[in-house]
Design brief:
It is built from five helices and five strands, in the order E-H-H-E-H-E-H-E-E-H. By secondary structure, it is α/β, with parallel strands linked by helices.
Length: 174
């Protein structure tokens, strides 16, 4: 599943791993019950509701998408602890290379497993990756009944407000 990324994004959203529909279509968060795209719009990150097939437009808003684990599965609980740990190492290297302002991991369980941080909760984390801040967001999967689209949009909105409050970083001279 190809990433939607560029250097210096405001937010690099990181899913757990591609679902089967995402893998089949080549579009992130493609399953109809997934609430990522509606929540992204409701929280003010995008001016309109984007379709998964329009994922490339995210770059024009300073946003991107990647995954912790590249392997597609029907459910995230099919992933092994080693896949999460290896995914966390790869993700860390990707973030250091791309230097987004924020890495937003959608799924606290995935974040805990990938970064060996059992006490993490939704919200901004103490950890940084280089100069990149880390924020854990609720998993937008339709299987996550603990969060509604409205409560997810509130949390995504907190991150959006943090990106607006963040001063622009100056790129170091070559």
């Amino acid at each position: 599943m190809p990433d939607v990324v560029a250097d210096g994004l405001k937010v690099l959203f990181c899913g757990i791993n591609p679902g089967l529909m995402t893998a089949a279509t080549g579009h992130h968060f493609a399953r109809p019950g997934n609430r990522f795209w509606p929540v992204l719009h409701l929280s003010g990150f995008t001016p309109r509701l984007l379709k998964p097939s329009e994922q490339g437009e995210l770059l024009s808003y300073g946003l991107g998408i990647t995954n912790v684990v590249a392997r597609a599965t029907a459910r995230a609980d099919e992933l092994t602890a080693e896949e999460y740990r290896e995914g966390g190492r790869i993700l860390g290297a990707k973030v250091r290379r791309l230097r987004p302002t924020w890495l937003a991991v959608v799924g606290v369980t995935a974040y805990r497993a990938a970064f060996d941080d059992r006490r993490a909760s939704v919200g901004p984390q103490q950890r940084t990756i280089g100069s990149t801040g880390v924020w854990v967001l609720p998993n937008p999967s339709g299987l996550n009944a603990h969060w509604t689209a409205a409560t997810m949009a509130e949390e995504f909105g907190r991150l959006r407000k943090a990106t607006e409050a963040q001063p622009l970083r100056a790129d170091p001279c070559p």
